[in-house]
Sequence to fold (60 residues):
Amino acid sequence: MNIAIKIVITIILLTTAILASLAVFDVFSFDELGENLLKLAAVGGIAIATSAVVSLVNKN
Fold:
């Protein structure tokens, strides 16, 4: 995969994780916005873990 694409995906995932952590600390109220951000963060965490595994496999 192109490095630029990896950088963009990483920025998106980090932004999602930051927004979700703000929701956890009640910066946002736990309405639909907060719940959706937490779901996105969970998906982002899974994507980061999957990406890490794939990159480790590709190195070997």
In short: DSSP finds two helices and no strands in the chain. Helices lie at 3-24, 32-59. Residues 23 and 35 are 8 Å apart (CA to CA).
